[in-house]
């Protein structure tokens, strides 16, 4: 079974301005097609045996699958967290109109 040519990547950042900066840089590098920053969300997790509640911005990146390695490298080098969340989903970009839009964006280099 072949994998999809399109991917979605989820990551998070506590600092919204930094999230905007990262998305802008990845767009300029041509490694993503677009990025969405969801409003601040609550994050609950265990840290050193204690329940921790933080807030952060959920980020959704749309890209072609062949750009994943560059996206992961970018996030790992720039992200302030020791182990940043990077979740990759193979997807199909859906409607013919949206696929044409993405294809055009890729052809023009973003």
Keywords:
5-stranded antiparallel β-sheet; 5 strands; Alpha-Beta Plaits; alpha+beta; N-reg_PII-like_a/b; Divalent ion tolerance protein; N-reg_PII/ATP_PRibTrfase_C; copper ion binding; 3 helices; 110 residues
Strand portion? 35-45%
Please outline the major beta sheet.
5 strands, antiparallel
CATH architecture: 2-Layer Sandwich
Number of domains: 1
GO molecular function: copper ion binding
Family: Belongs to the CutA family.
InterPro entries: Ion_tolerance_CutA (IPR004323), N-reg_PII-like_a/b (IPR011322), N-reg_PII/ATP_PRibTrfase_C (IPR015867)
Pfam family, one: CutA1
Question: Could you explain the architecture of this structure?
Answer:
The protein is 34% helix and 35% strand. The chain starts with 5 loop residues before the first strand and ends with a helix. It has a single domain (6-107), classed as Alpha-Beta Plaits (2-Layer Sandwich), CATH 3.30.70.120. With 110 residues, it is of the alpha+beta class. The chain has three helices and five strands; from the N terminus they run E-H-E-E-E-H-E-H. It has helices at 16-29, 68-78, 96-107; strands spanning 6-13, 34-37, 41-47, 50-64, 87-91. Strands 1, 2, 3, 4 and 5 form a five-stranded antiparallel beta sheet that branches.
Concise summary:
This protein is of the alpha+beta class and 110 residues long. The chain has three helices and five strands; from the N terminus they run E-H-E-E-E-H-E-H.
Write the layout of secondary structure elements.
Elements: E1 6-13, H1 16-29, E2 34-37, E3 41-47, E4 50-64, H2 68-78, E5 87-91, H3 96-107
């Amino acid at each position: 079974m072949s994998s999809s040519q399109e991917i979605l990547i989820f990551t998070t950042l506590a600092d919204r301005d930094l999230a905007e900066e990262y998305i802008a840089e990845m767009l300029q590098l041509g490694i993503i097609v677009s990025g969405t920053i969801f409003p601040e969300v609550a994050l609950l997790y265990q840290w050193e045996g204690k329940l921790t509640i933080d807030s952060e911005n959920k980020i959704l990146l749309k890209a072609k699958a062949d750009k994943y390695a560059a996206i992961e490298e970018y996030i790992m080098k720039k992200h302030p967290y020791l182990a940043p969340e990077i979740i990759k989903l193979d997807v199909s970009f859906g409607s013919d109109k949206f696929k044409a839009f993405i294809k055009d964006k890729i052809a023009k280099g973003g």
